[in-house]
Amino acid sequence: MNDLILKSIDEEIAKLRQVRAILAGSDTAPGRKTAAPVGAVKPRRKLSAKARNAIAEAQRRRWAKVKSQKKAAAQAPPA
Fold first, then answer.
1. Could you read off the pLDDT of 37-72 as tens digits, one per residue?
2. With b meaning 16 or more CB within 10 Å and e meaning fewer, what string describes 51-71?
3. What pLDDT score does 36 carry?
């Protein structure tokens, strides 16, 4: 009977240690895996000059459209 009680206490202690390790942010928690090492940086993706120009031109067109809508709204007589 004492063995059963001691076994359940040991199991509870193990669970509490796991929870404490997780809450403390420890990387040594049993069974815990991290997705990537801390400080790992992915290399930047490079765009060609043609792609950058296409993106810039599309943005200029979007802004021109917004500005023209604002100008038209300002010129419209109030109702």
1. 677 788 888 999 999 999 999 999 999 999 999 988
2. eeeeeeeeeeeeeeeeeeeee
3. 65
Query: What are the percentages of helix, strand and coil residues in the chain, rounded to 5?
Result: 65, 0, 35
Tokens of 63: 């802004």
Q: Which residue has the tokens 């199991």?
A: 11
* Cα(54)–Cα(61) distance, integer angstroms: 11
Residues of the chain with pLDDT > 70: what percent? Answer: 80
Alpha-carbon span 55 to 16, nearest angstrom? 53
Q: What is the pTM of this model?
A: 0.41
Please provide residue 49's backbone torsions phi and psi, each rounded to the nearest 5 degrees: -60, -40
| Distance from C-alpha of 13 to C-alpha of 18, rounded to nearest angstrom | 9
Which tokens sit at 10?
A: 């040991």
